[in-house]
């Protein structure tokens, strides 16, 4: 096995600064000594390091929890390294078993194509498109063929595969594990071989797969990549990781007003974790801001700064300013200038039916639940009677703090 060895180069102040940037907010950086040597070599030779992030297009949209690793990519990109945004169009056909307690249903090729078309457009809101290499792992995985797949599978043992926590747990519980799921970490690892990656990023749930890439590179006689895992972002509820299924997420395609308001809804304590993982402010700036809050500054001031930074990243600075104004207006009980205008028929119309037809509630039963919770207003007054019927006229209907509609009822 002809494995390349990282040659020692001087660890300068610039290298130490690059290491500090690399370590910001990380869960693990393995092996740290190898990464320091890679940084030193890059600084001495002027050769950028190749940094890989793979995402499977399992859904058409990504939320800001996904951008934690994208932010790290951007930080390393700004240091002058080559980042590779890898779209796992081939591996999505298998379905990543990481953290799963059952076999994941694979997507069709048509679904993958539709999702992949939007992925990079959204990621480019964080990465610099001009300095990003975009790849699809079908480029080399389609070419493997049956012979290549068998040769790849021979590089790892079933015993070691079963050491993986989710496989071990499912086996112990008697849950099914399909043979094709063993191929997923092998193929993700082979991506690193094909791309000659120096570093691969992922969430903490990806550690096994990332280490597989390091193992396979050694099998192919390459210098093994380092592995950097980032924490999973805690969602709006302050408890669970951000997830669409838990409805505690901020989608990066959401409108600016909604995005701004959702950031302001997080707890004061969670805000500092979000600053570390999502903000592009320096750690020194964040520490100074946190000290100001500890000394009596209103934590909302810091949260507004974070909300404006995140909103501006995915929209614009002007949109972030407008969102702040919209939020303040609503907090004072005001009605936003730009709200949907609808025309409905059927007066006198029950309030639950009106909310459903206006798109302010998904169903009449949910509308009644919102009324019971005091979350529905008509022309500024709280609706408490689920039997309320509205006559012909024009009304401003509000649900919660952020949903409005100006309804003309005939």
Automatic annotation (TrEMBL):
UniProt: ATP binding residues: 244
Record motif 'HIGH' region, residues: 57-66
Catalytic activity: tRNA(Tyr) + L-tyrosine + ATP = L-tyrosyl-tRNA(Tyr) + AMP + diphosphate + H(+)
Highest taxon listed in the record's lineage: Bacteria
SMART domains membership: S4
Domain RNA-binding S4: 349-410
InterPro entries per UniProt: aa-tRNA-synth_I_CS, aa-tRNA-synth_Ic, Rossmann-like_a/b/a_fold, S4_RNA-bd, S4_RNA-bd_sf, Tyr-tRNA-ligase, Tyr-tRNA-ligase_bac-type, Tyr-tRNA-ligase_bac_2
Enzyme class: ligase
Annotated GO MF terms: tyrosine-tRNA ligase activity
Cited Pfam families: S4, tRNA-synt_1b
Protein's cellular compartments: Cytoplasm
EC number: 6.1.1.1
Record motif 'KMSKS' region, residues: 241-245
Family under the similarity heading: Belongs to the class-I aminoacyl-tRNA synthetase family. TyrS type 2 subfamily.
Assembly notes: Homodimer.
Function summary: Catalyzes the attachment of tyrosine to tRNA(Tyr) in a two-step reaction: tyrosine is first activated by ATP to form Tyr-AMP and then transferred to the acceptor end of tRNA(Tyr).
Protein name: Tyrosine--tRNA ligase
Gene encoding the protein: tyrS
